Amino acid sequence: MTKMTLGSYPHMLGFEQLERLLERTAKSGNEGYPPFNIEQTSDFSYRITLAVAGFAEDDLSITVEDRQLVIRGRQTDDSEGRIFLHRGIAARQFQRSFVLADGVDVGEAVMENGLLHVDLTRARPQKVVQTISIKKG
After folding, report:
1. pLDDT tens digits, residue range 91-104?
2. pLDDT surpassing 80 at residue 7
3. What are the residue ranges spanned by the domains of the chain?
4. Could you tell me if 92 and 54 are in contact, meaning their C-beta atoms sit under 8 angstroms apart?
5. Taking the model in full, what pTM does it have?
6. Integer CA distances (angstroms), 135 to 130, 131, 132, in order
7. R_g over Cα of the chain
8. Cα–Cα distance, 35 to 83 (Å, whole number)
9. First and final CA of the chain: distance in angstroms?
10. By CB distance 3.0 to 4.6 Å, which of 17, 69, 84, 131 could disulfide with 98?
11. For residue 49, what are the β-bridge partners?
């Protein structure tokens, strides 16, 4: 059986990037940590909220790499010299990736009560009508 790709459809011109984007998203390796929400805050804005309890602002980094929002967390292990009778809260690191469509920009990031909020905005689409003249051959 032949695998169908977007390039296999003759009416889908220029969608090769979308196909690569879907493949990259499938390979992004996001695990279940930390949990997150994505909400639509208006017709042209979104908010990603990650539960990052135990992380300080300096433990987190937010970058946009090739239309991909990458949020990383790295905690330092401060357990030296401490004796734990039970250790259920481990210092751990994470990386969460979100693929951004063209026209989506990352706004501000705010840390509040153990939650990291990252605001995104999408440019309003412009309606463009182009008339192509036909020349006699």
Report:
1. 789 999 998 988 99
2. no
3. 35-76+90-123
4. no
5. 0.72
6. 16, 13, 10
7. 21
8. 29
9. 44
10. 69
11. 37, 117
